[in-house]
Amino acid sequence: MTASSPSRSNLGRDILGWIISAPVIAIIAAAIWIAASSVVENMHFARATQQIIGVLAAAHDYAGREKNYTMQSGEDLVASLARIGTLTDIAKDPPPAHFFNPWSGAVQAVAAGPTTMRLETEVPVRDCRRLALFFAKEARSLGLQIMEARSGEGGVWRRFLNEEQDTIVDARPIEAACGDEPEARLALVFRLK
Question: pTM for the whole thing?
Fold first, then answer.
């Protein structure tokens, strides 16, 4: 054997080292991927709640400034708030004005009555549940009167929060309303005045 060629025992140790270390490296990489995915999902959730609260705050502010302000049922509040310059997260071209949540679902807000706003957004089903539980905890302070959801495009709306309820004590109605399709549509009705 020459001095420059590796011995069979060294080659065997190198291969054995790779066999042992490869799964460890894969496990570490998977853990980093899972942690990063969780961080991204939490950032999406935080951004979605900020968007909903931002639309609510803009509508509250505008309704509070205009003494005789009453909304026409079905009025597109996103377009109205965009026209007066209180929403900056929206695309104005092409009309109608619209914007999207972090999961690329449209966010729509329409007048449900003279002093109420119905905000709807399409979200992944897991986030439908998270958003519903988050807003249910803050229902009274936000003026949230009704919350309902439907699974997928053709699903039936299922209400799980009424203005008579203070809080949701059981998550099962939320689970049933959001359903088991990949996407769900969440609707929140807020009192503005």
Answer: 0.75
